[in-house]
Design brief:
Layout (H helix, E strand, L loop, with lengths): L29 E4 L5 E7 L2 E4 H6 L19 H5 L2 H14 L5 H4 L2 H7 E3 L4 E2 L8 E4 L3 H11 L16 E3 L5 E3 L4 E2 L2 E4 L8 E4 L3 E2 L2 E7 L18 E8 L2 E2 H7 L13 E3 L4 E2 H4 L3 E2 L19 E2 L2 E7 L6 E7 L7 H9 L10 E3 L14 H4 L7 E2 L5 E2 L7 E9 L4 E12 L5
Parallel strand pairs: 6-22, 8-16, 9-26
Antiparallel strand pairs: 1-2, 1-5, 2-3, 3-4, 6-7, 10-11, 12-15, 13-14, 13-22, 14-16, 14-17, 18-19, 20-21, 20-25, 23-24, 25-26
Length: 426
């Protein structure tokens, strides 16, 4: 089935700024709360939120097999469970409805009033009920940098890293949408030169520049998914700030790896950009040496050219861009990650989220964390207001953005923005 929604020549009758992340060729999916306190599944074109529940009730999806309440829910899980054919049919239909040449809704003022909202009048929610969250560690540059700092610079990558997409099981209960502030975590740390740990606020709170993909129902327990089929089970992508407490992490990560240093908060952008929308931006991933085992081998283009940036904004000041990276730098692809995840028969469900791991590039200004950008705090970053940062200060807001762009169209993710507050006090 063709992806007619991607037609680069298509224009919308809704006004869309030239540099908008959300032209009619994007059509992401999310969940929002209206002024009337109604939660609905929606999409976005320009600065307009579109109520898909209202569209369905008014019969604009006639001819597409959908349950009666598909878009009148507070998560996208059921829609995602319907699979790739339904996603494409719905997205193509939305593009047709909002095409500049289609008068059906364009000229119906009564319908427009209940379907279309200004973005400033809605409140974005978490788009899916995330049952399970896995975070990978798939940037060779990031893994090498961390290995140099924490272990032996001569053997920065552990022996298994070039053979498997390393990952760990995260905590879904603390995944939050953009705009929700977080608190500096408390935890155990081992002060320099000491042999006994102390308990208190983390002093080294960090961001991690990541993306994440959302799955549909992938398999039954015991079944593995071939790498060449894995992409069919990926609904779309979001931006992810996987907050980290480096001092807590340093003390606890041996022998079992990430725990409380990572699970206190993970922030995601609220709009899920579909893999169909990203299709024009497919590109080749880095050469993999040694050649992966057969179940992970793939040929062709399986990653995406997504420009990424991170800014830090102190309270009452302007933001300063501190990192500019790209999704295509990742060594392991999403399909390899999902194939490996199911290779032992692990079940993956609709709404599960898989983090990419920190996305660092080859240059110092493309590193995806403060740990790397300041090299463990040795080289502070100067912000526009004259202040310096080794890690994230209380009341700083971390803003991540991402977009793809070619000569015909720009497809973006919006942003994930979160403020760091002091430790929670009962």
């Amino acid at each position: 089935m063709p992806i007619t929604a991607n037609n680069p020549n298509r224009k919308s009758w809704l006004e869309v700024a030239s540099e908008s992340d959300f032209p009619i060729q994007n059509i992401p999916f999310g969940v929002f709360l209206t002024k009337e306190n109604v939660v609905t599944v929606g999409t976005r074109i320009g600065d307009f939120a579109i109520d898909l529940g209202a569209l369905q009730q008014l019969d604009y999806f006639n001819g597409i097999e959908l349950t009666d309440d598909m878009f009148m829910q507070d998560t996208l899980n059921d829609f995602i469970s319907d699979g790739k054919k339904t996603w494409r049919l719905v997205r193509n239909r939305i593009a047709d409805i909002f095409d500049a040449e289609n008068p059906e809704l364009r000229d119906n003022a009564k319908h427009k009033k209940v379907i279309i909202f200004n973005m400033k009048d809605v409140e974005m929610q978490l788009p899916v009920l995330i049952g399970d969250y896995t975070d990978f560690y798939s940037s060779k540059e990031h893994a090498t940098n961390v290995g140099k700092m924490f272990r032996d610079p001569e053997n920065a990558l552990l022996p298994n890293w070039l053979h498997i997409p390393v990952g760990y099981h995260g905590r879904s209960s603390t995944i939050i949408p953009s705009g929700i502030p977080i608190h500096r975590p408390m935890g155990q740390t081992l002060p320099n030169g000491e042999t006994t740990p102390v308990f208190g606020p983390s002093r080294l709170v960090d961001f991690e520049l990541e993306t994440a993909f959302i799955t549909t129902d992938v398999n039954i327990m015991g079944e593995n998914i071939p790498v060449n089929e894995a992409e069919d089970y990926i609904f779309g992508m979001v931006l992810l700030n996987d907050w980290s407490a480096r001092d807590i992490q340093k003390w606890e990560y041996i022998p079992l790896g990430p725990f409380l240093a990572k699970n206190f908060a993970s922030s995601i952008s609220p709009w899920i950009v579909t893999m169909d929308a990203l299709e024009p931006f497919k590109t080749k991933s880095p050469k993999q040496e040694p050649t992966p085992l057969p179940y992970l081998q793939q040929k062709g283009k399986h990653t995406f050219d997504i420009n990424l940036e991170v800014a830090i904004q102190p309270e009452n000041s302007l933001p300063t861009i501190v990192s500019q990276s790209n999704f295509k730098y990742l060594y392991w692809t999403m399909s390899q990650q999902l194939a490996h995840h199911t290779s032992n028969g692990c079940r993956v469900n609709s709404g599960d989220m898989m983090g990419s791991g920190t996305i660092s590039g080859p240059t110092e200004d493309s590193f995806g964390s403060m740990l790397e950008l300041t090299w463990g705090g040795k080289n502070p970053i100067k912000l526009k207001d004259g202040s310096e940062r080794k890690f994230i200060n209380d009341f700083d807001t971390v803003i991540m953005k991402g977009y793809c762009k070619n000569s015909q169209v720009r497809i973006g993710f919006g942003e994930v923005s979160s403020k760091l507050l002091p430790p929670f006090v009962r």
